[in-house]
Amino acid sequence: MPSPIDRSLISSLPLFAAMSAASLDDVLKTATSRRYPAGTSVFEQGQLADQFFVLLFGRLRVTQVTSEGQQLTIRMVNPGDLFGIAKALRRTDYPGTATAVTESVALSWPMAEWSGLLERHPALAVNAMQTMGSRLLEAQTRLRELSTEEVERRVAHAVLRLANQAGSKEKNGVRIDFPISKQDIAEMTGTTLHTVSRILTAWEAAGLIEGGRQKLLIVDAHQLLLIGDGLKPGYL
Length: 236
Known about the structure:
By secondary structure, the protein is an alpha+beta fold. The chain folds into two domains: 7-146, Jelly Rolls (Sandwich); 149-228, Orthogonal Bundle (Arc Repressor Mutant, subunit A). The chain is built from seven helices and twelve strands. It has helices spanning 21-28, 114-120, 122-148, 151-166, 182-189, 193-205, 221-228; strands at residues 32-36, 41-43, 51-57, 60-65, 71-77, 82-83, 97-100, 104-110, 167-170, 173-176, 209-210, 217-218. The protein has a four-stranded antiparallel β-sheet, with no helix packed on it. Strands 2-7-4-5 form a four-stranded antiparallel β-sheet. It has a four-stranded antiparallel β-sheet with strand order 9-10-12-11. Strand 11 and strand 12 (217-218) form a beta hairpin. The longest helix has 27 residues, at 122-148. The chain is globular, with a radius of gyration of 19 Å. The N and C termini lie far apart (63 Å).
């Protein structure tokens, strides 16, 4: 029989804020801890959605293949994030594929537990609603960017968003602390690999960023903010 999951693993996560020790123990009764090596899938697009998850450690990439066969990077899943909640979207299948970018650990629950957990724990219901609201706002922001902004502005916003979500401060700037490829950025911003390569090469030559093992270092966030705002960048 597996050992009980220690509540300290989730007590500091925003999703479980304001919940008592007894409530956390109740939530964890039906949870299972799973490890996903880099490159492995947590679930696949179109698969029956029988589990929902909270990421404890690592990073995941959520992708979706359109009816035309184009792959899109929908979002990156960061530690503490709730994901795979197809039932909240009134779906019986997963709308995308979640793949581990680095070695990751997640808690999973049977999807059948979703409604009961929210009913028994109002704080969890409120926190989950806020999480989904924030995700909807981010999706609306990205849709607006895709519809109204030129490519360089979209790339600047994507890079800054990643840095805000998963940035690690270093002496020379802020590093996105997980592997992010140019193809990932292209899929996130609705453009081509060639275009993203050209933009990032120009930024690196201007000293705004530094590459290295797919982990971008943002050296001059202010200039990227100016680019994102559509203002003339100082490096021109």
